[in-house]
Amino acid sequence: MSPADRVRRALRRLVAASAVERILISSAALLLSILLGAVLVLIAGRMTTCTASDAVYYLGVGFCYDPVLVFDRLFLGALGEPFSGGWSPEGQFSVTLRETTLLIFTGLSVALAFRAGIFNIGTQGQMVIGGLATAILVFRAAGAVSGVAGTVLLIPFGIAVGAVFGGLYGSIPGFLKAYADANEVITTIMLNFIATGVTLYLVSGAFKDPESAANQTVPLPEYAQFPTVLFGGRQDFSLVALAVGLLAIGGLYYLLEHTAFGYDIRTSGLQPDAAEYGGVDAKRTIVASLTLSGAFGGVAGAMYVMMVLGTFQSGLPSYGFDGITVSILAGNNPVGVAFAALLFGVLKSGTTVVQFATDVPPQLVGVLRGLIILFVAMPEFFRMVGRRVVDPGSDPVAADGGTTGGSGDE
Amino acid sequence: MSDASSEATGAGSDPDPAPTADEGLLESRSTRELTAWAAVGTLAVLLLGGAAFPDTILGVLADVVTDKNTLASALRLSVPIAFAALGGIFSEKAGVINIGLEGLLIISAFTAIYVTDLTGGIWIGFGGGVVASTLLALLFAVVTIEFRADQIIAGLAVWLIALGLAPFASQVIYNGPNTPTVATTGSISVPVLAEIPFFGALFSASPSVYMLFVAVAASWYVFERTAFGRWIRASGENPKALDTAGVNVSRVRYAGVLISGVLAGMGGSALSLDLGQFTGNGPTMVNGKGFIAIVAYLFGNYNPIGAFLATMLFAGLDAIQTVLQLQGIGLPRQLIRIIPFVVVIIVLALVGRTRLPAAAGDHYESGEE
Q1: Residue B369 has pLDDT above 60, yes or no
Q2: Cβ within 8 Å, pair B345-A364
Q3: Is the dihedral angle over the CA atoms B330, B333, B339, B342 positive or is it negative?
Q4: Cβ distance of B149 and A380 shorter than 8 Å
Q5: Which residues of A are less than 8 Å from B347 in CB distance?
Q6: The complex's ipTM?
Q7: Mean of the pLDDT values across residues A348-374?
């Protein structure tokens, strides 16, 4: 049996055994994070002050924030009040889908790198670079065309620009890892800081909109932005962009599962030594997967510019870091990314509703982001709990020698 | 002689497909030395050039580099990074890669201000920051050692939790991501020694700088001279041998991670109490210092003194760029600010593969349980 066959078989077994378990673990992690978030809201409610009539009482103790209200607002608010009648797609629900669309791209970016065994923490920076490039080049190109034809030409152009610049920026840590052995976790984080600094320099200087006080580029004309279909336009959401996102999910799924390059990526991630033995060019795979990962990040930036803001402004929201959570929650599976992005989209969009309805700070979602990652990262915890529940009384038996060194999968 | 020549040819015929661990060490040590010498050489050229042409940009730079205030601010800036780097050494040598140092700095920086504001005692606040960081490190230890979480992912989670939690708490308590200002630690000046030109800065500094000197020396002593230091090393290099010798590997790893929590906590508390305020916008006031710390100890080859010197290199650059900014020289502000991050990448690329402790990153399962 050739090493490639052996790897293929190991892969298949691993996927079959872990798919259901992964979904269970992700759901349990999400639930546990929300519970802990509720506790945090209660504690925060004790630390702030409010009038007695505003407080809620649990077990005779008064709290300024009500976690039940917070999560009610968070989920129902994000879905556009589905139970109170008069649901319309133009409200908060389209904000949720907008966030979902952006998170799909950053989630895919992180997931692709993860599958190749690479931690791309730099999606944020790749998104920033791609977004700025899109804002500048699409504006330059917008003068040449106009109207519907302009939209048809400019949107694909903008996405391509975002992909190319994000991809180039992503290739930097790729080359550094492949040819200089520089740890990609550190280099990508440093490149995030560098991207922020460089873009701030550019949009406060050479590419600044002279008519605006903010550090931003000249706004794109209406026809150079994503058209709104069905959803009105109030919330800067475009169904077209979401469709592009779903296409990207399908594309990455196909690439990973049905192409030779995808096979190289997956084997490099699972068994780097076996992959190289089986003829995979490790260095090329590293550079290629980080470049492609960066391209997804860059497209997220392009989407943000052409769908949400219509311009590039310094200080982009941290979709790149949220992408880490989305990808980990999805088990780094492109199809899973769709569901994880929707879930996290609900969290992000719901936070703004919570902010209106209560005084709970919006940074709550940032805490949940970290907690979810932490819990998904410790599957052993849930396995232990699971064993207790399913089979109480029997202690897990340790294998003799104990040299296996923990579970093989992440 | 023959040894030296064979080594030279070995280094010359570089493209070796599968370098062994020893060759990797040799290779990285020589690049590391090269980088260090390059830094020293640049400095020498700068000073000589500055002395020869005092009116040029070289002269200005030489003035800045030899200024007592530059050394003072380099020391001040190195405090959080060096403390975190020392902590990282303890954790990673014990076999747990702690990429969450940034999060430990953030949580301690906020808590130090909060507790100081609450109690009015600066040193109580300092202790509060250390406790907060140690608790977060304990969570990290439980998750990675007990529940075998992937160390890198769990470390990222620690960072992101702190990145959310500190501004969240600040918003709840102070209605904004930035805290109000509290009293600062001030500085201690040794009477006569502080008057020495340039090096006088070493003797007129905030208490945290002296604490850092003590921590560097103590860490070095622990690793080189004590049984506990040997256990830590063994726990990362050969946990099985440590287990066979009757020492509990888990317990040693817990100790390593908790010490990293204490040290990073001291760094974070010192950072915010030095300014008397915590600012929580964007990447917060910690702004990547925890990640720079990781590069500092990799560059310093897991040696506390090496890590401190590497930190001084980064902090020195930072100090110089601050002075240049104030004098309004050369590059625009936004670009000058990214210089330290660029240098970190260059250093990392030059140092290349660092020889991690053999068992770092792996979960260790003892036979019992």
Answers
A1: no
A2: no
A3: negative
A4: yes
A5: none
A6: 0.82
A7: 85
What are the CA-CA distances from residue B321 to residues A276, A396, B42, B230, B326 (Å)? 44, 57, 16, 40, 9
pLDDT given for residue B367 in this prediction = 59
Q: Chain A residues with CB inside 8 Å of B337's CB?
A: 197
Q: How many CB atoms lie within 10 A of CB B275?
A: 14
Name chain B contacts of A189, Cβ cutoff 8 Å.
Answer: 288, 291
Q: Has residue A56 been placed in a domain? A: yes
Q: What is the largest CA-CA distance in chain B?
A: 72
Give B5's pLDDT tier (boundaries 50, 70, 90): very low
Would you say residue A158 lies in a domain?
yes
pLDDT digits (tens, 9 = 90+) for B299-326: 888 999 999 998 998 888 888 877 777 7
Pairwise CB contact (< 8 Å): B337 & A197: yes
Residue B42, number of CB atoms within 10 A of its CB: 10
Average pLDDT over residues A271-280: 79
Q: Which among B164, B298, B364 has CB closest to A367? A: B164
CATH assignment, B59-351: 1.10.3470
Phi, psi of B204 (to 5 degrees): -140, 85
Q: Contact at 8 Å (CB) between A217 and A311?
A: yes
DSSP result, A274-293: HHHHTT--HHHHHHHHHHHH
Chain A environment of B172 (Cβ under 8 Å) = 44, 47-48, 361
Name which of B150, B160, B295 is nearest A321 (Cβ-Cβ). Answer: B160
- Decide if pLDDT at A8 tops 70: no
> pLDDT tens across A392-410, in order?
444 444 433 333 333 333 3
Per-residue pLDDT band at B212 (split at 50, 70, 90): very high
Residue type at B115 in one-letter notation: V
Closest by CA position to B167, among listed B261, B270, B267, B286: B286
Asked whether residue A298 falls in the same domain as residue A339, the answer is yes
**Contact status, residue A56 vs residue A66, Cβ threshold 8 Å:** yes
Tokens 């409010």 correspond to: A50
Of A374, A383, A270, give the one whose Cα is nearest residue A324.
Answer: A374
* Domain ranges, residue A338: 85-357
Q: In this structure, are A140 and A264 located in the same domain?
A: yes
| Paired tokens of A176 | 């550094």
Which pTM value belongs to this model? 0.84
Count of CB pairs separated by less than 8 Å, A with B: 166
| Mutate: best of B334, B342, B368, partner A, most A CBs <10 A | B334
Does any domain span residue A402? no
Inter-chain touch B156–A182, beta carbons under 8 Å: no
- Confidence at A126, pLDDT banded by 50, 70, 90: very high
Whether pLDDT at B227 is above 50:
yes
Please say whether the beta carbons of A154 and B302 come within 8 A: no
Rounded Cα–Cα distance for residues A247 and B108 (Å): 44
